[in-house]
Amino acid sequence: MQIRIASLLFLSFACGLASTPQEHWVGTWAASPSPQAATEELQKEKLLFDHQTVREIVHISLGGDILRVRLSNAYGKATAQISAAHIAVHGKGSAIVPGSDRVLTFGGRPTVAIPPNAPVLSDPVKLRAPAGGELVVSLYFGEPTTGAGIHYSAQQTAYIGSGDLTAAASMNDAATTTSWVFLTGVDVEAPQTAATIVAFGDSITDGARSTVDANDRWPDVLAARLRTRHGGREIGVVDAGIGGNRILHDASDNVAFGVNALARFDRDVLSEPGVRYVIVLEGINDIGHAGSSAPESETVSADEIIGGLKQLIARAHEHGLKIFGGTLTPFEGTIYPGYYTPEKEVKRKAVNDWIRAGKAFDGVIDFDKAIRDANHPGRMLPAYDGGDHLHPSDAGYKAMGEAIDLSLFR
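RE: above sequence
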C-alpha cells in the first residue's frame, strides 16, 4: 500500500512537472558591440561616465509581458559597476510613460558588477511592452566607468545626465550620444513556437544614413512586415549589423568597425535566444576597404569572401539554423576614395553570382536587384541612394526590407 501511494505521488509529481510550461526566451532587440576606442575618442563621444545616468532607447520587434535585459562589458578592460538600472516604456525624447518604470535586478540585487568581456542577464521583470514599440533602459554609474559593450553610430539618441536619474520621468538638459553602451539585448518571454531572426551584416544592415530615431533600417522594415502577416509563428528580428564590418579582417584604424564576422558569429548570432534564422549581408567592405580605409595588404579575392560565407553557413547549419544570403548592393561612384574600382566591381558580381547560383544558402534575398538602377546596375537607383552611393536612403532600406520573401520564415 505504501509503495502504491508513493508511486501515485511520484506520478502526480512527474505529471505536475510535465504540465508546467517551460519558459522560452526570444530576442526582440539586440546590438553588437565593438572594441573600445581611445580615451580621447570616448570622451568626445561622451562615453566616459562618472556619477552619471545614461538613458538608452530601443525599438523592439516582438512585444510581451515579461522581459529581461542583456548587458555586456565586451572589450572592457576593467570591471564595470552598474549602480542602478531601470526599464520603462518610452514616451517622447528622454521621457518615459508614467507608471511604466520598473527596477531591474540581477540575482535579486539592484546593482551588478560586470567583469571584463562578460555579459550579464537581468532578472525577468513584468512590463507590458507593445510589439513594435520602444523601451527605455536607464543605467546609473556611481563611480568612474569607461564605456564598453559599445555599439557606435546607432542611429538612435541616448541621453546622459548627472546623478541617479534612472527613475526620472525625463532627463531635461541632458547631453546626448548616438551610441548604445553596455546594453546589448532585450528578450521577451514568448510561446514555444516563437523564434528570432538575426540580421547579420555591416553598416547597410546597421542602417547607416537612415534617419536618426526613425527606425527605418531594413531589419526594422522586415520586423514590421512579420508583425502584420496572417498566420505563422511569432518572430522577433534583431539587428547584428556593425558599420564597416568585414568577414575576414578586423578593423584597421577605426575600432568601431568591430572584429571580423567569423570571430563574432558565436556571440552575435549563435548565442541569441530563440534564434532559428540568420540573414547574412556581408562582404562589400572586404572588397572596398583594402586600399581605402585599410591597407592594400588586406586585399581579398571573391573566392576568399565566398570561403568566409561558406564557413558561416556551416556553423549555422551545425546549430540547426536556416541561413539566407543577401546579395551585395551596388557601390559604383561612392564618395569614399579608393573604395570603388572596376576591378572591385568584378569581385562584387562574382560573389553575387555565387550567392544566387551556389545553392549553399538555404535561400537568397536579392538586395542588389531590389535597389539597383536597372539602366546602370553598378549603381543604386537615385531614389534609393543615401547620398554617398554606398548606403541606401530610408526609401532604399524600405525596398530592401520589402524584398524579403516572408515564406522563408515558416
